[in-house]
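Q: My labmate handed me this sequence with no annotations at all. I'd like to see what the chain might look like in three dimensions before we decide whether it's worth expressing. Could you predict it?
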Amino acid sequence: MATAPEVEDEHSESEEDSSEEEEEEEEEEEEEEEEEEEDQQMSTNEIVNIDFEARSPEEADYASIQRLLKQLLPSGVNLTDMTDLILSQSYVGAVVFQPTDDGPEATEDDEEDIFGVTTMVNLTARADRSSVVELIKFLRDKFDPKDTTVQEGAKLEKFFQGAMNVGWIVNERFINLPSQIAPNLFESLRNDIEDAVKKTMPYKVDAYLLIAKAHVSKGGSAQNPIFVNDEEELFFQVTPSTSQR
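A: Here is what I predict for the chain of 245 residues:
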């Protein structure tokens, strides 16, 4: 009696393979979902610390310092000359930068991004510079005796006439630089000025000038401006008279 040959159940094996593939795909999808949830949780809870350091201005900082001055000073001031002036007195003040790890591809020509500059310029002693002349003219044009007391107005007039040493405090940074760094910068600037005075350099002044950027909120008062650099509000509070034009 002849027997029929055995025939493998190909349909059954195909179903088993398909089932295994579906299980593997489901496992991969679950793993991907878990990874996405972990990434989202890390992005929500993780605090990123960014370090900033300060050093003396260098020639390589020229373009960055000029950009910072451009967002602070009016268009009529020669930014090229003012940048040259700040770099010529690099022993006073500092620039802020974000340090990077020197990798194998780093070169000496690589430029650091400068995020802020803090220094002081004796406007009276540097009155021969074109940028200083233009800055003083800008200040004179903006000055209105009604904005200040008689005593303070008299001091400004002496300054405009070159009879009073006034130090312009340059305090400018890009918006992404936190204000927490400001106290250390001002402390360092004070030490630099004291050292320069001991060496009989022209940094002993009768008064300081600060040009601060501020705006008034809708419905607000000019007596309560909102300062772009938070720390400059302290100068506004302790100054007996401030022009806000």
